[in-house]
Amino acid sequence: MADFTVGDDHFRLDGKPVRLLSGALHYFRVHEAQWDHRLSMLRAMGLNCVETYVPWNLHEPRPGRFRDVAALGRFLDAAQRAGLWAIVRPGPYICAEWENGGLPAWVTGRFGRRVRTRDEAYLDTVERWFTALLPQVVQRQIGRGGPVIMVQAENEYGSYGTDRVYLRRVAGMLRERGVTVPLFTSDGPEDHMLTGGSVPGLLATANFGSGAREAFEVLRRHQPKGPLMCMEFWCGWFEHWGAEPVVRDPAQAADALREILECGASVNIYMAHGGTNFAGWAGANRSGPLQDQGFLPTVTSYDYDAPIDEYGRPTEKFWLFRKVLAEYADGPLPELPPEPAPPAVPVRAELTDHATLAAVLEALGDEESAPSGVPPTFEELGVDRGLVRYQVAVPGPRRPYTLGVTGLRDRAVVYVNGVREGVLSDENGTLDEPVAGPAEVELWVESLGRVNYGPRLGEPKGITGGVLHERQFLHGVRARALRLEAFEEPDALAALAFGSVDGTEETGRTGLFRGTFEVAAVDGIGHAGLGLPDWTRGFVWVNGFCLGRYWSAGPQRTLYVPGPVLREGANEVWVLELEGAGAPYAELGPGVPVRTGTPGDVRV
Fold first, then answer.
1. Whether this model's pTM surpasses 0.70
2. Which listed residue (51, 154, 156, 446) is catalytic?
3. Tens digit of pLDDT for each residue in 398-408?
4. Of 491, 384, 30, 21, which is closest to residue 229 (Cα–Cα)?
């Protein structure tokens, strides 16, 4: 048993000063069978602590339906086995480049702009979530012999609002449910952020990627006493589909880390190991002026240009960080665990079976909604990740007019009388060619990830406005959802009738493709990378495990395959293509993630 406290100048363990050398590693972005390896890598880099967020939406996908909340507890146990303390950031909002900032879609759909405020109905929902979650934390606090030394109240609230009543309520919920370790907040080192996000009596920490001395000067204006800590030292950055890769010079990042430590501060390296946004859980951002913000969906990889890459390997940044951290360690650093290995030779999975999107929807989709005056949003349909087919009629006879969508979020493949006529997006919502009536229109709309940061947090998905022919709204819209989680069900594809793939005739088609590949032995295979030559956009599963979204827009070209997903002998691949298939096979090999571009400072 031990006592961890916040002193006037240092963190203290049983009264003795201690510096936290922490690294972020999100248990939900790493296959559970790989936790021990990744945590050992943190120790080998010179860290004594691990930090993790907790995504509410992953664990409560439906109101009152909790799913594997105990995963957090198992991860904290793994951290203790690795000899690490743990910092837990349970939200309820986490940002994290994660779908909806971790808030369930049913929460933002119900409460809208009342989330993250003192609204009593919203707070009741948070309270029920904390009641289910916090026993995993409370029983593993350091005072009970566990690894947990600190817990965050909310997350970067100063970037969002000023409701201190809300922040105090969140902190009170944590205390009322048995959290006795120090509570803290974290915000950017800006006066307005620290004013909006800090709470009297709670330790305030700062998040930044460089300029530690200046950042801590700002923090000291708001908190004259207490240990200094950079709760998120941004050593890299995340990437968006269709944008340039993000690279940070390793030496520059190591110098920024050293500056933090020279200030006498503690640090949490964000990210020490990023992992992967499996199963379509990647979030999105909005950029530009508030009224005209462009949509930027986050890629599946959360490599983050971190010192431990997505495949669990040390990078140049790792070795430079290890050298810096070794100067602050209590003793010699441990050796690295064995490096994960790829398959000995590349493997090709021939995609021999095919089912149309309509057939997949019929077998796995929800019931179709009744015709309605306006298209129901994903939230109204109860859909978090996946796609929705909207159907509506253009009455006639009438001359050809433009056909488009207002409030499209985020991307739609449009068919008129069964013929594909184009792809619409958040930025371009009108077909190139006019449409005459009568006609039947189908719009297959996919959410590319909910916004996880900023004032447009929680915006709805699907068709949030309407379908327009000229200036006239088309009514009587029917909608049917295909949820990604439907593919997680046992024997999900048992009711689906597949046809055979006939070589190049499949090129450009949509639908679900299935194939197999052989692995002689899985012992020693720590990972693989999966590529789809000339395919456009969709999702991939290996042995029922969803690797996430692929998209020819780049910059990501291969999907990470955790070694524990593979099995000796026959392995099965599913590819759900939404725009246009390429060559009828998938390739598995080393899958080395390549970040190209000019190294420079990340946006801070």
1. yes
2. 156
3. 999 999 999 99
4. 21
